[in-house]
Amino acid sequence: MKYIRYIRKDENGKSLSSILPNIFQDDSKTYFMNQIRNYNNNNKLQVFNIGYEHSKPGAGLVDWRTHRHRLHYVIDGCGTFNGQPVKKGQGFFTWENEKHSFLADENNPWTCLWVTFCGKNATCLLNEFTDLSLDYPVFDIPSQDKIIALFKDAIYVDHSDTNLDQYLIGWLYTLLSYHGYSYMQSLPIQTNTISKYCENQFRQAITIIGNRFDTQLSVSDIANEIYISPQYLDLVFKKAMGISPKEYIIKCRMENAEQLLLHSDFTIGEIAASCGYTDYLHFTKSFKKRYGMSPTVFRTKK
Known about the structure:
This protein is of the alpha+beta class. The protein has helices at 122-129, 144-156, 164-177, 196-212, 219-225, 230-241, 245-263, 268-274, 280-291, 295-300, and strands spanning 3-9, 15-16, 30-37, 46-54, 60-64, 69-76, 78-81, 84-87, 90-94, 100-104, 111-118, 138-140. It folds into two domains: 3-177, Jelly Rolls (Sandwich), CATH 2.60.120.280; 182-302, Homeodomain-like (Arc Repressor Mutant, subunit A, Orthogonal Bundle). It has ten helices and twelve strands. Helix 4 packs across helix 6 (230-241) and helix 5 (219-225) packs across helix 6 (230-241). Mean pLDDT is 77; it is low at 1-39 and 181-188.
């Protein structure tokens, strides 16, 4: 696929010739980072654009429909989405081919980050691997600091990089991971077997793993953060899920690897690294143990 260029525009449609160093501090303009390329409806997954906007009072769209999905994050101010109030620290999701209305507040207009994406696998990905829902489109922003940092990464990435498409798909997977992949809910959680105090600690641990399984996260790290011993954390996990926290970390990593193998062109080494493995052979061994075949063979059978 050939990349032509990224075009950045201000609110008047004027192209910006360089990356603005204070883009997140400037509260007077709208910036689009539109990826202009040969769009292909057969793409499994594609990031169409990423943007940042400090809206004018009352600005927005009414009965707006698009054939792409779009995530909005309100990092300041407030407004409404389909008549429902949305404030700082919340976000809303516009599904493809559905009518939506969203308006910035007249007195305290919102500042938003957004990403638009599409592709044959986009809806399936959302339904199967996130907690985003058409029935509940307004959500509290998970891991807000991480999401803002992620958007900054997308702005300052080298847009002339020939691997940009792969980068953006990986970027989108990381963003969506904060919305709760299905592996966060895929095993039955028997909270009736543990106390309310333990349940709170257990869910904290689940959140930590979901946000950081792609790092060198250890059971001891998790236990230290929620102020219990690794042995006690192991006991709580086994009572609630029937598996140890270490097994759950591996499960998260493997299911993330499965999706990257199915929906990206990353090399096996790149996928291993993005799933928290520094040792390629260790990753391959873990994957084969779970799926009965190597990552390379799994990809050829997709």
